[in-house]
Write a structure and sequence with these properties.
Length: 818
C-alpha cells in the first residue's frame, strides 16, 4: 500500500495545515489578547512542547497487547518526564503546530498542562493511536480524521497526557473549554439523501457532547427541513463525560427536488426545554441517480450508511456488492461505477473508511448492507455478485470464501488474499514460541483465506490486477492464480498492462468483469449435488446451500464437510465436526433418504431436516439443537460479545478508584467503537441494568464479582469467578492483585445472547485490562485470556490461562500456561 498511503498522507498533511479552517477555528483579538475558538468552544491551550519515548517497532498483527506506558500506569510506576527524564527526549511542535518526525511513528508522546482551577474541558487530538489523560485511557485519532473530542475533568495543578504511536508520525493536541455543557457537534455526521417520491423517514445520526458528570436521559431531537417538513425522535441516552453519536429521523420531502436542503436539529429534554440547535446541509436526489441510504445495524442499533449506483430502467435487476479500499468512503466507491442497465451496484461502508478490513464488524456490515439492498431494491436473488478494490479486494476474497452460497461470482481487484501475510508490519512469528499464542492464532483462523479457498469452487472468480502495482505486489494474485489453477473450473485472470494500484475508474469498473458476472447464477438448493464446505468457525460461516455446521469438535480449528447427493443417497465426509444439519426439504426429494456419514449408514424421511450429532465415535440423529451448548448462533471468541445490540455495564461498587476506572474503561471501549466502527453503544451503570430491560441483548460487563452488581445476575454460575484477591477457573485458583481477564460466556436467560467480561483483581489487575485491541479486524481473541499485569511489558510469557471453553461451556479445555 506504499504509493496509495503516500498519496493519502499528502492529503492528510494538507488537511492538517488547513485544520483551523476545517474545524471552524477563528482567531479573535481583544486588545493584545489572542483568543482562538472552535465550533465547540474556546481553545484554552495548544500543546507545543513535550517528550517522546521510543517503542518496539514490531508489534505483531494477531497479538499486539504490549504497551510500556500502560504497564507503568497499571503498577503505579509512571514518572512524569519533567521530573525524571530517563529515556524520554524533548520535542517541540513544527512550524504548523504539529509534533512530527519519523520517530513519532513508533514513539509515545508526553505533554502536560498546569491548570489554575478544576473544570470540565474537551481534548481535541489529531494523530496518535490512543491517549492517556491523567492515567486513564481514551481513544485517539490514529487515522487523522480530525473529529476526536474527549470530555474530561481538568484537575487543578499538573495534568498529564500521553499519546501512543502516531500512525502517520504526527500528533496535534489542544484543550477546549466548551461553549455549552451539552451541545451538538457537526463533526462526523451520518446522513442519508432525501429521496424524491419515497414517503418514509430516514435514519441519521449526529454527535452530542455531554460535558457534564451526569447521564443524559429522555432527550428528543426534532429535525426540520428547509422545505418545512419535520420529524421527532426520542433519542439515545448519553453517559457522563462522553460524546455519543445519537439517532434522529430525517423527514421525507413532499416536493420533488434535486439539490441541497438545510436541515435544522433541535435537542430538547423531557420538559421540552431547548438544549441546543444546529443547522447543516443535506442532499435531496432522485432514486435513479447515485445516492446514499441508511439503516440501523443489529450490532449496536447505530445508524450506518451505504451508497448506490442504481440500475438504469425499470424491472427487477441483479445486485452487485462492492467493497472499498482503505481510506475510501462508500460514496466515492459507488461513484467509480457507471450505472448499468441490468444491475444495482451497492457499496457498503465497513462502518468506516478504514473500518475492520472487511473482517469482524466489517463483515457484518457487508452482510447487513447486502440484506438491506436486496429488500429495498427487490433484486433477483440468484444474480448476486461481489467485487472490491485493494483492501476491498481482500474483502472480496474473504467474503467470497466465507459465504460461498451468497454470490454467483466474485471479482477481486488490486487485491491481496490474507492480511496477516501482507504488508511490512508482520511480527507474529515472534510469538510462535509461546504456548498461549496457539489459541490466539486459532481464534483468527476465519481470516486465513488460503485455508478456505476451496469454497470458491462453486462460484465464478475474475481476478483483475495492474501488472505495475507497487502498492499490492502482483505476486499476491499470481499465487492465487496458481492455487485456483489446481482445482477451480471457472475463473478468469487479467493483468492490466502498465496498471498501477489505481489507473482510473476502470480499475474497478472493468467491462469484462460485468460480462463475466452476467454468465453466472446462484443455483437453487435442489440443483446443488455436491458441496465441499470449509470454515474456521460457525460463528462466522455456518452454511453452504443445504448444509449447516452447528458445532465443532475443536472450536476455531478448520472444519470441512464434503457431501455428495446421488438420487436418494447422500455421502458425507467430515473433519472437525460434531453437529451438522442437512436441509432435506429444500432438495425436494421423496421417500426415504440414506445418509452415509464417515462410513456409517443412517436413514431418514426426505421431508425432515436431518440433524446429525457425533457422540464419541458414533453418528446419530437428534431432534433439536441444545442451545445451552455452543452452536452456530452462539459461539465463543471474545470479540463476538460486541454484537447483538450490545450494552456495556460498568461497576459502581468497590473503592473510589475501582468505580472511576471501570466507568472510564467502559467509556474507552465506547469511544473506540465510535471511532473505528461508527458505533453508538448503550453504556449503563450496574445499578440500572436488569435482565428484562435488556432482554436477549449481549452484555459486556466491566468489573468483577466484588464490585459489579450485575455479576450475580449474569455470571453467578460462571466457571470463572473473579474478585479482588483471586480468579477461580474451574477447580483451580490463581491468586494475586495483578491478574486481568477477558472472557465470554452464554447469557443464561437467552438462547442467543453472550456476556463478555473485562475485569481484574485489585487495582493492578483492573488497570492491566487497559488494552482494547479486540476492537480490531485483525487481532485474535479466544474465549478466555487471563494474564498478569506484566504482559503489558513482556507479552505472552505472562499469559496465565487462554483458550476455548468446551462445547458445554465448561473450563475443562482451557490451557494453563507456564
Amino acid at each position: 500500500m506504499k504509493k496509495s498511503l503516500l498519496i493519502f498522507l499528502i492529503a492528510l498533511c494538507t488537511k492538517s495545515i488547513a485544520q483551523t479552517k476545517a474545524t471552524g477555528n477563528v482567531v479573535e483579538y481583544f486588545g493584545k489578547e489572542k483568543i482562538t475558538t472552535t465550533a465547540e468552544g474556546t481553545v484554552l491551550h495548544d500543546f507545543t512542547a513535550g517528550f517522546t519515548l521510543a517503542t518496539d517497532k514490531r508489534s505483531g498483527t494477531l497479538f499486539n497487547g504490549q504497551d510500556a506506558v500502560a504497564w507503568q500506569y497499571s503498577i503505579g510506576k509512571f514518572v512524569n518526564p519533567n521530573k525524571q527524564k530517563g529515556d524520554w527526549h524533548p520535542i517541540k511542535v513544527d512550524s504548523v503546530g504539529v509534533f512530527s518526525g519519523k520517530e513519532m511513528r513508533s514513539a509515545f508522546l508526553f505533554t502536560e498542562y498546569k491548570a489554575s482551577k478544576s473544570q470540565i474541558v474537551l481534548l481535541e487530538t489529531t494523530g496518535g493511536t490512543r491517549t492517556y489523560i491523567n492515567g486513564f485511557p481514551h481513544e485517539g485519532d490514529h487515522y487523522d480524521f480530525g473529529y476526536t473530542l474527549i470530555p474530561f475533568k481538568l484537575h487543578k495543578g499538573i495534568n498529564e497526557f500521553v499519546y501512543t504511536k502516531g500512525r502517520f508520525g504526527r500528533v496535534k493536541s489542544k484543550i477546549i473549554v466548551p461553549s455549552k455543557s451539552i451541545q451538538f457537534t457537526k463533526r462526523d455526521m451520518t446522513l442519508p439523501d432525501v429521496i424524491n417520491g419515497e414517503k418514509n423517514e430516514k435514519w441519521a445520526s449526529v454527535r452530542v457532547i455531554n460535558a457534564t458528570e451526569k447521564d443524559l436521559k429522555n432527550l428528543e431531537i426534532t429535525a426540520k427541513l428547509s422545505s418545512g417538513e419535520t420529524a421527532n425522535y426520542a433519542t439515545d441516552n448519553i453517559m457522563p463525560l462522553f460524546v455519543r453519536k445519537v439517532k434522529f429521523k430525517v423527514p421525507d420531502a413532499k416536493a420533488n427536488y434535486s439539490g441541497e436542503l438545510t436541515i435544522e436539529l433541535t435537542l430538547t429534554d423531557k420538559s421540552g426545554k431547548v438544549i441546543d440547535k444546529t443547522k447543516f446541509p443535506i442532499q435531496q436526489r432522485s432514486a435513479t441517480i447515485h445516492h446514499e441510504r441508511t439503516f440501523l445495524s443489529k450490532v449496536d442499533n447505530s445508524v450506518q450508511y451505504y451508497s448506490i449506483a442504481p440500475a438504469l430502467g425499470t424491472g427487477q435487476k441483479a445486485l452487485i456488492l462492492s467493497v472499498h479500499g482503505a481510506s475510501v468512503e462508500a460514496r466515492n466507491q459507488a461513484r467509480a461505477y457507471k450505472q448499468k442497465d441490468w444491475a444495482h451496484i451497492v457499496a457498503a461502508t465497513n462502518r468506516r473508511p478504514f473500518g475492520f478490513n472487511w473482517e469482524d464488524w466489517g463483515r457484518i456490515d457487508a452482510l447487513e448492507v447486502l440484506a438491506e439492498a436486496k429488500k429495498v431494491f427487490n433484486t433477483i436473488p440468484e444474480q448476486t455478485y461481489l467485487t472490491g478494490h485493494s483492501m476491498g479486494g481482500h474483502g472480496t476474497w474473504f467474503l467470497g470464501t466465507t459465504y460461498p452460497d451468497k454470490f454467483a461470482a466474485i471479482a477481486p481487484c488490486a487485491s491481496y488474499p490474507d492480511i496477516s501475510t501482507y504488508g511490512s508490519d508482520k511480527g507474529d512469528e515472534m510469538h510462535d514460541i509461546f504456548k498461549a499464542y496457539g489459541s490466539i492464532k486459532r481464534s483468527a483462523n476465519s481470516g486465513r483465506i488460503k485455508s478456505l479457498v476451496q469454497n470458491l469452487k462453486q462460484s465464478g472468480v475474475y481476478i483483475l490486477h495492474g501488472d505495475a502495482d507497487s502498492t499490492v505486489p502482483i505476486s499476491q494474485v499470481r499465487e492465487m492464480r496458481q492455487i485456483l489453477g489446481t482445482f477451480h473450473p471457472n475463473f478468469c485472470y487479467y493483468e492490466y498492462p502498465g496498471g498501477e494500484h489505481w489507473y482510473g475508474d476502470h480499475s474497478v469498473d472493468w467491462f469484462p468483469i460485468f460480462e463475466f458476472f452476467k454468465r453466472q447464477t446462484i443455483p437453487a438448493n435442489k440443483e446443488v449435488k455436491e458441496i465441499d464446505f470449509h470454515t474456521a468457525t460457525p460463528a462466522v460461516s455456518a452454511t453452504d446451500y443445504w448444509l449447516k455446521l452447528q458445532q465443532q469438535i475443536r472450536p476455531f480449528d478448520f472444519s470441512n464437510i464434503n457431501v455428495k447427493l446421488d438420487k436418494q443417497q447422500i455421502t458425507v465426509k467430515t473433519e472437525n465436526v460434531s453437529i451438522m444439519e442437512i436441509d432435506l426439504p429444500s432438495l425436494h426429494l421423496n421417500g426415504e433418504i440414506t445418509i452415509n456419514i464417515n462410513d456409517q449408514t443412517l436413514k431418514i424421511a426426505a421431508d425432515k431436516k436431518a440433524i446429525l450429532a457425533l457422540k464419541e465415535t458414533k453418528w446419530g440423529f437428534i431432534d433439536a439443537i441444545n442451545t445451552t451448548e455452543k452452536y452456530a448462533e452462539r459461539q465463543g471468541g471474545f470479540k463476538f460479545a460486541f454484537n447483538n445490540n450490545v450494552v456495556f455495564v460498568y461497576a459502581t461498587g468497590g473503592s473510589a478508584s475501582e468505580r472511576e476506572w471501570y466507568l472510564n474503561r467502559a467509556r474507552f471501549d465506547a469511544e473506540t467503537f465510535l471511532y473505528k466502527g461508527n458505533g453508538s453503544i448503550d453504556v449503563v451503570a450496574d445499578s440500572e441494568f436488569s435482565l428484562e430491560k435488556y432482554k436477549d441483548r449481549n452484555v459486556v460487563l466491566y468489573g468483577n464479582a466484588s464490585n459489579n452488581r450485575a455479576w450475580k445476575l449474569l455470571l453467578e454460575s460462571s466457571p470463572i469467578q473473579i474478585d479482588n484477591q483471586q480468579i477461580k477457573v474451574g477447580d483451580k485458583v490463581l491468586k494475586g492483585n495483578d491478574l486481568a481477564a477477558y472472557f465470554v460466556l452464554p447469557r443464561k436467560d437467552s438462547k442467543t445472547a453472550l456476556v463478555g467480561v473485562v475485569a481484574g483483581t485489585s487495582e493492578k489487575g483492573m488497570k492491566a485490562t487497559w488494552a482494547n485491541n479486540y476492537i480490531s479486524g485483525i487481532t485474535g481473541f479466544p474465549d478466555v485470556m487471563i494474564f498478569k499485569a506484566d504482559l503489558l511489558l513482556n507479552g505472552l510469557p505472562n499469559m496465565q490461562v487462554s483458550g476455548f471453553f468446551d462445547n458445554n461451556w465448561s473450563a475443562k479445555t482451557l490451557e494453563f500456561n507456564p
